Amino acid sequence: MDLRYHLTFIDExxxxxxxxxxxxxxxxxxxxxxxxxxHVESLWWRAAALGARSVGSFGHPxxxxxxxxxxxxxxxxxAEECLYCHLPHDVSRVSLDKRSRNFLxxxxxGAVLAVVLPALRQRMDRLHxxxxxxxxxxxxxxxxxxxxxxxxxNRRLQYRLxxxxxxxxxxxxxxxxxxxxxxxxxxxxxQMRALSALCRC
Length: 201
Ligand SMILES: [Zn+2]
Ligand SMILES: [Zn+2]
Description:
- This protein has helices at 2-12, 34-50, 98-105, 109-123, 129-142, 155-163, 166-176, 179-198.
- With 201 residues, it is mainly α.
């Protein structure tokens, strides 16, 4: 099946030959190769062209991009090539208040992980199976780096995190952790969206 072929391609490509990988580096940890990223993107755009919705809508509502502001006016000029979500978001995305943002800003990377990873894990069963498998891989890689939940991570913050989408929570990892972890989170989200595009969900 075509879809299966593409998904297999994405899953298997990184773990096959990779001449630059040192013998001490565990498999599956290396960065996505640029050619592969381009390949994923071309599949993604092709999938978008087949559907009536936009590129940014794939993975809705957990993995999609922000809702498109043009849709509420005279339609979106970018149509299906729009990088924002064209599907209705009945529950507006809850973002963090300033106090919570300042709190996360002041934490060490391990403490940010301790706060955000449990919320991501709770959200995982809302993803379709291929994206959930990729999410699980990311969480397993990051969890050993999490410290104990810091003082001040109160119920209000936990509640707000519990209302955020998977993509929204991933955004916190890209904003409040190290450059290295931010790259990992971005790459994983990109792949999860591509997988959503391929299965058109
Ligand atoms: Zn959406
Ligand atoms: Zn749009």
